[in-house]
Write a structure and sequence with these properties.
This protein has 21 helices and no strands. By secondary structure, the protein is an all-alpha fold. It starts with a helix and ends with a helix.
Length: 430
Amino acid sequence: MPTQTIICLVVFVATLALYMSNKFPLPLVSMAAMGIYVITGCLEPKAALSCFSNSSVIIMGSMFIVAGGLSRTQMIHKVTNLAYKISGGSFQKGMILYCLVTLAIAQVAPSAILIFSICYPLVADFCRKNEVSPSKAMFSIVLICICTVTSLPIGSGATSYITTNTMWETYGITFKEGMFDPMFVYLPTIILSVLFAMFYCPKVAPDYGPLYTDVQLRKLKEQKPLDPVREFFGYGIFVAVVIGILFNDKLPATVPTWMVCFIGAVLTILTGVLSEKEAMESLTMPPIFLYIGSLAVGNALVASGAGDYIAQGLQSILGANPSKWLVIILFWMAGFLVTQFMSNMALYSALQPVLLLMCATYGWNPTGLHNMLFKATFTSYLTPLSTVAIPLCMSVGGYKQKDLIRMGLVPALTISVANIIWIGLMFPPY
């Protein structure tokens, strides 16, 4: 194993240990890891610098301001009052309602961070209304955002099978995937994540107290409502950003998703929905720096060839005539576990060719395995390294690394076992 790879893995393990110890702020740990990677040559300075300009960083910062603008209006309070009325003042019934709403939004929004950015201000205000800590609710919402995004044949999920069939043809695979096949493969993950989010996670989640301190509550009460014009802009900008996100594929290529969010943030300030000071207060920096550092750690792992080692290791373990159960277990575990610590797209890109070449060699139908691998590599929520939505969730929920494990471990184990059994029985590779 090359020296650079060894250094990279040692720093990676040390970073995880510091995350778990909770002795230092997580953003500080992740940024320090990025600095060490650059100094030791594991990560090119240019690659490290690019983490600051990553589109997800801009989306996160912009959505902080856009969501802050919406929070300044009366819309969130009206939605909260409606949800409170429908739920009869019950926090559990309200969580069920918000989980279902999040599930619906997740089928049309293209990424977990965008879905969570839309939903968390509403849920936070509902927690305030019920005098419940937001730490009891935020993980439930992000779990659904991550596990169910575009899982149903709606929006981009309705056309994913076309891309898949084209990919299979390039590997000489003659099997064809139907529009509803991915949804059927994803069913255990969809059903279990929603049930855990509704009934399990709120019970085991920590209680870190109210969202607002007494001083903040007094400030909110003293804050004057927006005039009708700015109130309209507050609603309109948020709705326009959401629509722009949902139908971004219909916009010109010069207006990517991050630009939609960025324009929304600028307009929120220019129209006076938020003052410059209020906008800066909404722009919470710790989760942004945590993500930047985490992104650098993931990039260093990819640059070190970790994905290639995983793929080669799988091939050596499987051998010439592998058992279907062994194949299913190894690909699920490789995807689900490793994606907690590195870029899910990078990992998926490394493992997908191995899986498809294997299916082509043995004449297997890749419907179950291929979709299972995709879901495994993109279902990541146990560490702040896993996906950009988690640092944001940790910020608004006040979570520590140990909280993610406490809330997410049982769902992770259950979803893993269910997927392995489901694919083995309903979508075997041959």
